[in-house]
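Fold these two proteins, one after the other.
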Amino acid sequence: MTSARDLRRRIESCKLEHLTFLIHQEWLLDRIEDALAGAAPRIEWIVGPSRAGKSMLMEALAQRYPEYREGGVRRVPVLYIPLSQAISSKSFPSLVLEALKVAVRRGDRVADLELHAAQTLTKLGVKVLLLDEASHFVEPAARLLPRSAGDMLKVLSERASMSIFMTGIPRLELLIKSNDQLRQRASAKRQFYPYNFREADQKSAFAACVKTYYDMFAECGWPIDVEFAAFVKNCFLHTGGLIGVLSKFMQELCIRPRGEQPRALSLEDCKRASDTAGGTRSPLVKPFKSLEVSDADLNVAHQYILDIEPLPDVRRL
């Protein structure tokens, strides 16, 4: 295996459990333990822009609590479901049953599917349902009204005596606001937002993530020949503080031409990787154009991410 391939393998398999990730993980782990100990069902929800790390968080929680057998009986304490874009009153209970590896009875009415899903959740001992990308319930093209989607989740939680944890882009707040009963049962909103370079602790946490990748390149024979502080600032220009976008940039940077021998990577190499990595970034800033990065450009990069997915006016629904 060449050093370039080894580097790419390491970069692509790296899942950074960074500061914000760990804060949310520890809080939700406590809530899961409460649910497994018999506490009353809860509705928890986390919002943040795409590529913030919400899906990685939900996957990590699910991996902590795999299904098992007790006295020959299958038990699924925590069920993880990544939602698709097309959700309807009939497709959602079908997704629940499919995630539980239970056959969906074709021809069942919506009410029968909902009851079957609730009964199966109870039978298998599901205490926490993790719904990733739950904002799909309230997308403009959704096949459910926000209030109806909220009713469906509320009823499922009550029937199965089960907590529901949801993640999504800021639009997810419409699901909570549009249903009085769901809102009364839901905890306060938690925000999984990009790092802010103006905050000292967040700046340090972002730099620590960059350092992890920076060291990997050096260890595999491809050191980044850019002064570290300047490299961190340029990475922030490219990402706006999103760790998922940082990961994508690093994956692009480690893709080297076939046959190229290990060498130091220049600022120009980083610029090419930034240009080809795609993703979302402010058109007003130019990452890796210079070693000098102004505070104003750092703020523009960060604010652009916050403005991409603002909460729509609930009165227009």
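Now the second one:
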Amino acid sequence: MKPKGLLTPQRKAILDVICDSSDHPTAAEIMDRLRERGCQFAYGTVYNTLKYLTETGQIQELRVGEACRYDARTEHHHHIQCTVCGKVDEVFAPIPKEWAEEVARETGYLLDQDQLLLKGVCASCRAQTS
């Protein structure tokens, strides 16, 4: 999807923070990173910009538990979250067609999109407990 309007300096700064992040930051983390870069934006500006960037398809909003996180990778993919440290990573393995068909049969839904959030313990956390 193409942007609907101008990429103002504020929008560009917020988009840059998200694009430079590999950890799917929350709005609060984005605010902290903006401050580290010398930007002082109001919370409303950040939240409105996140909404705009999501609606125009420039970023993806992930609802992970009670938190919303933001991802610059907009191509279709899934996510996995560590149940110990909260880290979120991308998963590009496709959902097996047979599983999706079984879900449709079981629920009666016509599936038109999918986005899974898998959970487990990441390698770093497993190494700390060994």
